[in-house]
Amino acid sequence: HQFALISVTLRNEGCEAYLPDIYGEKIIVERKITKEGSGGYVLKNEHGNVISRERKDLMLILTAFNIQVDNPCCVLTQEESKQFIQGSDKEKYSFFMKATGLSVLSEQILAVSEDLKTTENEIDRTASKLAEKKKDVKKWSAVLEKLKELESIDVEIGKCYVKAAWCEAMDCENEVAAAKEKCDICDSELLAMEESLAERSRAGGGEERLNLVQQQQKQVQDEMDSTIADKIHTCLASVQESNKRIAEVKNNLSMQKEARTDFKRRLNEENAALKGIRDRQMVDAQQEERDVLEGINNAVTEIDALNKNISRMNTERNPLLEQRQGLLSQLSQVEVDVTNSQREVKILSDNLKEATTGQKYSNSSSNTVNLQRLRRFGNEDAVKLAEKISKERFNSPPIGPLGMHITMKDGFKEWELALEKTLGYYLLSGYVVTNREDSITLKRLMNSVSDRCNFTVYQQPDRPRYDVRSSSSIFNRSNHGNNGIVCAIDLLQISNDLVFNTVVDYANVENVVYSHSEDDIMRNLVQQTSSGGKFGFKYDIKTAMTQDGTTYRYTYGLRSMETNRGKFNNLLAVDNAAVVETLQESLRQEQHEFDARLERKLVLKRQVEEVVKALQRLDNNINNEVQNLKRVQRQKHTLDNRLLEVQDLNRVDTTNMEAEIIELTNAIEQADGYIAHLSATLEEENRALKAQKAEHKLAENQRDEYMRKLNQLSDELAQILAAVRGYNKVKEALQREINKCQGSCKEAQKVLENSQLKYEKLVRTAEDESKNRWPDWDGQPIPLTRKDTRAAMIKLAEDKIRSRESDKRKQGIADCTIPIALDKYNKAMTAYQELKTDIEEMKVKLDMLNKDVVLRTRRLNKLRIRHSNSVMANFEKYLTQRNSSGSVKFDFDEQTMTMVVQTQKHDGNTQVSDVKNLSGGERSFATFCFLLALGHVIESSFRVMDEWDVFMDELTRKETIMMMEYYIERPEQKGRQFILLTPNNLSHVSVSNKVRVKKLPDPVNHQSAHGLQQQTIN
User: Which of 53, 723, 620 is nearest to 310 (CA)?
Assistant: First the structure.
């Protein structure tokens, strides 16, 4: 595919619906991602119609529904969960702020503060500009005053220009009078020429005779067109039609003759064929038909027998196929078991060899014994780490591995496996320190040994040994004693108080008891805890185990059982004797199992070979029978075809051929009659054609007579036209003189009009100049003297201008006028007022921003306190449901958040302030409780949690799901959608109209270059 399409449908109902008139009750959001990496959004209504493609419209919808995809509390991915657990206190605080939406408010405060600083800087810059504009206003105000003082000189200059304008108007008035006189002379000459032309027109030039001859010519032409032309046209059409009919008759006659010849040929062929068929019918074919039928019957019998044999052999083949498949499956499983047993025998042999070597030197060197025991807790990595610890400086040397300091009391050998499972490999191979600095140093030494050297480090305060209860204190309240039940704490022999306290804190050994069987546990340790039928352990016991390591627990009244899947490693044995004995017994059992599985493998191989041989023999027999069946079927098909041929020879019907011979004879007779009819028709059409040609000849003679008359009239008309042309030449010459005179008149009139327009324009200009430049002008032309000319007035004005500019240069305002100065002054004043208004507006904005920062800061502090208190209370509440406790500590000044978790509610020694020190399941449960607590202070239409339970055991996972179901069904969560993604089984979840379980199909192999391809939920 060239692109991927993601479609999400949002409900849009209720009072908070977003633009329901446009989108309806559903909003469909589609995102297309192309192969090249580009993409785009499409918003559709409930009918699928496109409403928008803009991202800003999508953001408005997300804001209206309060959908925060980047909020980790709304969509918690595995990566964000990992970052939260492993992050620092500042990163956890950032997670809290982002999840509660307070980070948005904090960012808004920072943005407003930045805007506040920007506004203050802008006020300072604007104030400096305002001072400059104020100087400009004063400058142009002074220039304007100086220019007004020179305004009297401008009045004198204006009067000079006014007189110059009136001088030019008076000169143009003289030009108008001369042009008017010329127009009068041209009009007189034109009138005399027009009278002469009228007199010649009355004398005439032969036009009447010309019209008469033209009428006669038209009359002869019309008469010829109305009579002779139509007649000639009719005759030609008749001749053409006759020729067409004659051609059709000749064509039909030729076709009929060819058809008659063909009918005659077919009649001869049918007669010959009929005679041959009748001759063949005389042959006797009855004997041949009997022989063919006998062969067909024999072939059918043989085919039935072969089909029965093939069906029988296929029936025998199916059980053999099933047997072979079953044997191959068993053989495959046995081969896997043999390989596993062989590998296990090798491992046990190596371990036994190493343990035997340690036992050999146990009497000669205690160091060798300790070295061999040390290898049980981490092979060579443990030995190398011990060497590095001995050379390193510590505040208080680490103690470990802890299993080296733990032994079992005498008389309890039967419980060694159960006790080893209770303590666990990680605790027995771990180290304990008393301070954080030693813990960091020890982890650094582990990293220097190898990447695999990752023993657990426990930080335990150096305090006196705990006072814990024993079996006697647990069962003192029972009237029947302990009945063979023993507490894990009673089996341990630990001399070091620090090791003892660490085992009590992390293994909970005072609440673990051992019994010989499940029945003993159910009879002596279980009781009904409520009227609802729920059960639990007595005496505050948390866990019960049998000798084989099977573990029993009760949570919320539900019992869970976990069988022992681990190996027994004798980690608590003091010397190698017990280890060697255990390894020898395990090796004997594993070797015996390996021999049995190897023998079973050989037996299955022989059985498979026998079944394969039987199948091959049966397949060969089936192939032989199939070949015989095909051969017999081919013989039968050949005999069937021969039978049809024989039967066709005996059943030849000649009725159709006889009828066809009769039809051909009748067709020949009809063709002869039609040929005679066409010949007679052809003769009649030829006679009609001859008559039509004679009539056409007569019409052409009449047309020639009319043409002679027309030629005579044309000659007379040419003579009249020559006389008319001579008269017209004289008339045209006179007309040309008239036109020339008219052109002169028009030109003179045009000059007059232009002069008048120029005069009027100059008068208007002079009047405008008078209005603008002559003070108190009375509307009459300005009186002029003979000395007043336009050139003299302009020269006088220029002299005054030079004098004025000289004065302006002396005063420093040479290139400035009053309008320019006034415009500069107005612009400077406008800019000054605008800057002053801007400063006032920015001061108002500054005041509003200060108030906004204070208001938002108060709101942030109030919400932080409210949300943190709610999170702390609910975090404690949810942890309590699993007999744990904890708190969340906030430091708003340092912007840190610390999670303190106590895995045992009433045991302060189980408290840790860093969730990274918890086990995987405990960390996941603490994170889960923190997310539930956050849910009380956020508003979101949905929440997504991705694989939150992958590090939890089965019991913890069920508890979290029950807590989540209770949390989701609370009234305040109504209308919200919760999406939980998990790879684990959810068969125990009750499905309802509120709870649905969607299972992703298994990956499918499409036989492509990509191999397995993941499926999607439909």
Answer: 620
